[in-house]
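Q: Okay, next protein. This is MFS transporter from Gilvimarinus xylanilyticus. I've checked the sequence twice, so it should be correct. Can you predict the 3D structure?
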Amino acid sequence: MSPSLRRNLLTLIGILLVAMNLRPALTSISPVLRNIGEVMQLSAAQQGILTTLPVLFLGLSAPLAPLSARRMGMERTVLLAVLLLAASLAIRPFSGTAGLFIGTALAGACIGVMGVLLPGIVKRDFPQATSLTTGLYTAIMCLGAALAAGATEPLRLAFNENWSPALAFWCLPALTAGLVWWHQSGETHKPAARPHTPRSLLTDPLAWQVTLYMGLQSSLAYAVFGWLPTILQDRGLTPVEAGLALSTSIMSQIVTAITAPWLATRMRDERFMVTLVMSLTLIGIGGCIYAPANTLWLWVVILGLGQGGTFAMALTLLALRSRDPATAARLSGMAQGVGYTLAAFGPLITGILHDVFHGWEVTGVFLGVVGAVAILAGLGAGRRRHVLEH
């Protein structure tokens, strides 16, 4: 095996292992959120903040990723982030209320840094297979999210109904990813010298359309991650069934996470696909809230098919709207920094609306409006153009 092929294979394995850890810190909370609230005596507003914190810090930490990558290289930055993620997941359940909130915020920050850098690594090392590689790591990310959503409540029951070790369990996949990434982090690519200061993406309308699409679809995703089990429990499912339903929904994402980018790149542009997958997402959310309870499992699958495609398309747009890896990293930093900060309001407002109106009907209208605006942003972002083209 040639050195370059070996390095690319190690990079791909590392990307997939890191991707598996980009969601368990979030999806492991929601199945046991009610139990955490009872044990820690958290109000509904505090529970909403707990689901919002990691998303907020996904956005706040995004600008740190390119700064750190310029100093240490992308590989070493990812290594540091995944090891800090493992530490925060191990410590947060055993550190009281303050430790739970701080550890959850730190986990979100680590995930934000890794999420910003991975599209640039993919663009750099797999330029001829960007959509396929993006689909693969999105699918593995969905697998990790689904495992955490489905297994955390059974783990709690196995640990004598103690949620703390059930949450701490998810430090193990992060530690495994860190060990594998450590092995390859010595082969760091130094960023090429820039002959001039690049134009700011903040003045580019297309960059803002990509950012809005990323942020609004993420707002829906994290509202679902944080509150879908509670919605389904209110509609009659048991806690275990609700966790499994979220897991089923996330597992369904794998199908469209791979196929949506692949099909979209074979079309004239990406506008049809971003509209289709967001429409499926809205149909699934509507079904979970308004449809008869005996059809809930159908709607969680449709929801998963939509959300797998929306996130994969958001990541694909970061690569396709950029001419080179450096621009892809900058666009990723902007889209995820601004987008995830915007997305943090999704689960927060979802919790507030439920608290005020004592039901999910008004929340469903709010999520529908978010999805409609996301479609408008996606129609702009899906045009076959590049940022900073003019």
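A: Here is a summary of the prediction. DSSP finds 17 helices and no strands in the chain. The chain has a mean pLDDT of 87.
Q: Noted. On to the next one.
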